[in-house]
Amino acid sequence: MHIGLRIFFGFFLIVGLATVLTLRVFVQEVKPGVRQAMEDTLIDTAHVLAALAADDLKAGRIADGDFARHMAALREVPVNAEVSGLHKDSIGYRVYVTDASGIVRFDSTGTDVGRDYSRWNDVYLTLRGKYGARSTRADPADEASTVMHVAAPVRDGERIVGVLTVAKPNAAMTPFIARSQRKILLYGGLLIGTACVIGLACTLWLMHGLSRLRGYARAVAAGERAEMPLRGAGELAELGRAVQGMRERLEDKQYVEHYIHTLTHEMKSPLAAIGGAAELLQEEMPAADRQRFVANIRTQSGRLETMIRKLLALAEVEQRQRLEVREPVALAPLLAQLCAELEPRARQRGVALQCEAEAGSGPAAGHVAGDPFLLRQAIANLLDNAIDFAPPGTAVTVRLQRRGDALAIAVADHGPGIPDYALPRVFERFYSLPRPHGADKSTGLGLCFAREVATLHHGGVTLANRPGGGALAELVLPAA
Predict the structure, then answer these.
(1) What is the pLDDT of residues 114-145, one digit of tens each?
(2) What are the two backbone dihedrals, phi and then psi, of residue 153, each rounded to the nearest 5 degrees?
(3) H helices, E strands: number in the chain
(4) Strand partners, 463
(5) Which residue(s) pair with 146 in the sheet?
(6) Phi, psi (degrees; rounded to nearest 5) at 363
(7) What is the pLDDT of residues 186-206, one digit of tens each?
C-alpha cells in the first residue's frame, strides 16, 4: 500500500475511533443528564407545594380546600410556551398528597383518592425522614411509560403529617433528549468530515515533500547535478539537508585522501629519522655522536608514541554520543593543579605561568558537571599550546571567569599569534603551525581533542588573536 494511503487511513482510523467513542459517551449521557435535571426541578417543586398544602392537610380539608381549588384551576390555565424550539401547551404534573398513614387524601387527577400508597418508595421513605423518589411504569409492558415521582414531607412543626408527591412522565423529556442527541450526532459527523479533510490535506502536503525529496535522492544516486528542493526548519527539510550532507561527505574523497596523506606524512618523518639513526649506529663512531643518535631515536619514538596516544584518545572522544561519567568538577583547584604541574616546563622555556580564578562564591561556584579526566586533558592541551608559542620572558595567563550561566577558561599568551590563513583550520586534525625557534610541530590533535570534549560537555572552544598580540584560547562550559 502507498505510504500516503497508510498515513491517511491511520489518521482517519485514530480520529474516527476517538470521535465515535466520544459521541457514544455523549449520547449515552444525554438521557440520564436530562432526567437528573428534571428530578432536581421536581424536588424544588415538591417542597414548595408541600409548604402550600400544609395548612389544608392539618385542617383536614386537603381534598376540598384552597390548595385543591388552586390545583384544579391551574389545570384549566392555558399554556403557550416555546422551549428551545419545542412547543408546550399543557402542564404535565400530577400531584397527590397522602396522610401520615400513607393514604391518598388528594390526587390532582382524582383517580387514586383513598388508596394506600404507604409502600411506594416516595411515600414510605419520606415518612421516615428520608429522600423519597421512584420511577414506575404506567404500563408494565411499555418501557417508555415510566413516570418519575419525587416527594416532599408535609410538616406540622417538626412532625411529618403527610407527604406531597409530584409526578411527571419521563416521556415529556423525550423530545429534548432526541433533539440533543441529533445535534450531537450532527456535529460529530461534521467533526469526522473536517478531520478527514484536514488529514487528506496533511497527507497530500507530506507526500508532496516526500516526492520532491525522493526525486532529489534519485538524482543524487544517478550522479546528476541536483539542488536540494526543500527549505525551512521542518523535518522534511532537515532530512533533505541530511541527504545533502551525506552526498557531500561521500563525494568529498579529497578530504579522506588528505586525512590519510597527512597521517602518513606525520608518521613518515619520525620513522625515517629513527631508521637513519639506527643505520648510523651500526657503524663505529665517537661516543658523543652515538649518544646524540640514541637521543634522536628516543625523541622521535616519543613523538610517535604521543601522536598515537592522542589519536586514540581523539577517536575515543569522537565516538562518544554522551558522557559516561558526569560529576561536579571544581575548575579553580583543577586549574591550580595543572599550573603547578606545568610550571617546571614553562620555567624551562623561560615563561611565567599565572593562574587567576574569579568564579564567584557559594558551594557550587566554579563547578561544572562533567568528566574530570577529559576536562583535565582538554585544558592541558590549551596550556601546552600557549607555553609552546610564548616567547621567553613573557607570561601565559590562565583565567577562570563566570559569564552568566557559564564558566569560561581563558588561556592567553604573548606569542606571534595565528596567521590569518590558519585561523579557519586550527581545529582540523593534524593541522599544526611551526613552533617558534625552529622547534618541531605538534601532533595537531590537541585542539581537535579540546573541541570534542567541549561539545560533549555542551560547551564550546575558540582560538583567536588578541588585540595586543598573542593568541587567546577560551573553553566555555555550562556552570553546574
Answers:
(1) 999 999 999 999 999 999 999 888 888 887 78
(2) -75, 140
(3) 10, 14
(4) 473
(5) 137
(6) -65, -30
(7) 877 787 777 777 777 777 777
- pTM for the complete prediction? 0.44
What's the rounded Cα separation, in Å, for the pair 410 and 422?
A: 20
- For the chain, domain boundaries: 3-178, 252-319, 323-478
Per-residue pLDDT tens over the stretch 414-465: 888 888 888 888 888 767 787 766 555 666 777 887 888 888 888 899 999 9
Phi, psi (degrees; rounded to nearest 5) at 430: 70, 5
What is the phi/psi pair of residue 67, to 5°? -60, -45
Q: Are 47 and 58 in contact (CB under 8 A)?
A: no
One of 3.40.630.30, 3.30.70.141, 3.30.565.10, 3.90.1170.20 is the CATH number of 323-478, namely 3.30.565.10
CATH-assigned architecture of domain 3-178: 2-Layer Sandwich (3.30)
Q: Which of 253, 267, 337 lies closest to 304 in space, CA to CA?
A: 267
C-alpha cell at 300: 622521535
DSSP 370-418: E-HHHHHHHHHHHHHHHHHHSPTT-EEEEEEEEETTEEEEEEE--S---
**Do the beta carbons of residue 15 and residue 192 sit within 8 Å?**
yes
Q: Specify the CATH architecture of the domain 252-319.
A: Orthogonal Bundle (1.10)
